[in-house]
Amino acid sequence: MSNLNAVSFREEQGRYKGIFAWIFSTDHKRIGLLYLYSIVSFFLIGVLLGAAMKLELLAPGKTVMDPATYNAIFTLHGVIMIFLVVVPGLPAVFGNFMLPIMIGAKDVAFPKLNLLSWWIYVFGAIIALSSLFMGGGPPDTGWTFYAPYAFKTNTNMLPAVLGAFILGFSSILTGINFIVTIHRLRAPGMTWFKMPLFPWTLYGTGWIQILATPIVGITLLMIVGERVLNIGFFDPALGGDPILYQHLFWIYSHPAVYIMILPAMGAISEIIPTFANKSIFGYKAIVISTLAIAFVGYFVWGHHMFTSGMSGTALYTFSLLTFIVAIPSAIKVFNWVGTLHKASIQLETPFFWAASFLFVFMIGGLSGLALGALATNVHLHDTAFVVAHFHFIVFGGVGFAFMGAIHYWFPKIWGRMYNTRIATSGWIIFFIGFCTLYLPMFFLGVTGMPRRYYDYVENFHGPNIVSTIGSWVLILGLVIILTNLIRSAYKGEKASKNPWGGRTLEWTVDSPPTLENFEEIPVIDRGPYDYRKNPE
Amino acid sequence: MNKHSDNHIVPYRLYIQVLAGLIVMTILSVAITKINLDTLTVFAAILLASIKSALVLTFFMHLKFDNKLLQILVISVFVLVALVLFITFLDYNFR
């Protein structure tokens, strides 16, 4: 497959030079990297805001900031991390880079639309963050913009809401692109059940992006209508219903959790068989559970609203459905563990991330069931327990999978290897920091510490100190990981085509891939994780 | 996989019948507002609108003649929307 004249997508001379060769490129790999650099930049801002919050909670009373600043900081942390980092996260970065290669295509179905979606993402991010620099300051409502407070606060709600609205378009366009790509551009012979699992999860995600995102778009426009034109949708003073806002918001935002976690599960499903040197256990069960999560995930939004005053019938229904959605997730975990059973495991950094993903994802998932039960929810609602739960899922699940994915595909993307010893040390420190940061929050929540409070009573002091120290350890781990990766991208040893012994198509192309990935589109005659016979 | 239908020629008569059906249902959806259906008012309006859009999709947008996979996808999307609405009304109708 290698062509002596072929240069990698990084060296390819297109119509433009310098930075323009990137920001106007329609190559899916360059767009994936544009997303990566933007998302990592926003992630670092989000981390600093999170660290500032933990610093404030180091001691009761005012430590480093006043309550209003704290409110603005947790809102910004949430808006940045959710809308700018985790929702686009894996699909936009690794989906863009890897999807066409993994299904044997030269690019996505609509390359120009793909570039447009990145531009919309940047535009939306600028609008959302512009609220920081306007009189009135950033919003202080929390990332959920709950009514009726969202209509009464004097902070800059509109830019944040409009930013989120614009970002939704980027998500929809990416979803359309991926669905069409998967339907139309699979290599000859790649039937649906010969497709690797990461593209499968992108397919499920694409449908959620297309069908759920417009709902939040309309809802955010309704906020604008209410604030600017005084139309009574949600504000009781105008004849609206605040719970309707919560319904509409969570009809999108709960499936959005699956936009975040499904591709993360896909990345883990790629890493585990490669490092277990073994076919994935229960391929079809994983595919079906992916689609089941995508489908059932639409119907559980009400579990965010158990104490809001919904009818009893709705409460029981949402609780039951929440328990049902746990089943396909558990099936996947069972399959991953089943794959590792009696495997000859290569203990490399991506595997450590995947294994720790299983650990934190299980804690996050099981604590989710505690919250999905009606009675315990009343006690735990809006406490630090909820914060711990969703950080275990969103940061633990998506974050760890992202880290695993970047360490897994690093040689393919940059064509170089990283220092595995430093990478593994970074992982250990990060993992210890993560657990130290978030585990005490479960305890704090159960004992009654509310979330989103800048102050607390003396009883909560000890676990808060531990948690804040955890945030410093986590940041140390992060610095080690990032420094190692950035350094290795420039100075690392050259990587071969297939350094880990993976069987999916991306490991058959050059590292880094050429502009069109494949010199000749491959014909597929085997399953994606066929470790029984050596294909080389 | 995708032969995108073998150029179906649909007789004008069928289009006119569908059009007539749509007009009748539009009149019906106005007329039904005169009857007090209580909590079912919204349901009746949504039901009529759904039948109308199903007719448009099936005949005017040629879904009937498209490949099976697309038919399944479109139907699934409508089932999904119906379920979301149904569950939302489990709250509003039982408060």
TrEMBL record, chain A:
Gene3D superfamilies, A to Z: Cytochrome c oxidase-like, subunit I domain
Residue ranges of every copy of the Cytochrome oxidase subunit I profile domain listed in the record: 16-525
Its membrane topology: Multi-pass membrane protein
Pfam families for this protein: COX1
InterPro entries xref list: Cyt_c_oxase-like_su1_dom, Cyt_c_oxase-like_su1_sf, Cyt_C_Oxase_1, Cyt_c_Oxase_su1_BS
Signal peptide location: none
PANTHER family: CYTOCHROME C OXIDASE SUBUNIT 1
The protein's name in its UniProt record: Cbb3-type cytochrome c oxidase subunit I
Species: Carboxylicivirga mesophila
From TrEMBL, chain B:
Compartment(s) where it occurs, according to its Swiss-Prot or TrEMBL record: Cell membrane
Membrane topology: Multi-pass membrane protein
Record-linked Pfam families: COX4_pro
Keyword hit for Membrane: yes
Tagged with keyword ATP-binding: no
Major localization class: membrane
InterPro entries, per database record: Caa3_sub_IV (IPR011743), Cyt_c_oxidase_su4_prok (IPR005171), TonB_box_CS (IPR010916)
Keywords: Cell membrane, Membrane, Transmembrane, Transmembrane helix
Membrane spanning stretches: 12-33, 40-63, 69-90
NCBIfam families xrefs: caa3_sub_IV
Protein name, per record: Cytochrome C oxidase subunit IV family protein
Organism: Carboxylicivirga mesophila
Phylogenetic placement of the source organism: Bacteria, Pseudomonadati, Bacteroidota, Bacteroidia, Marinilabiliales
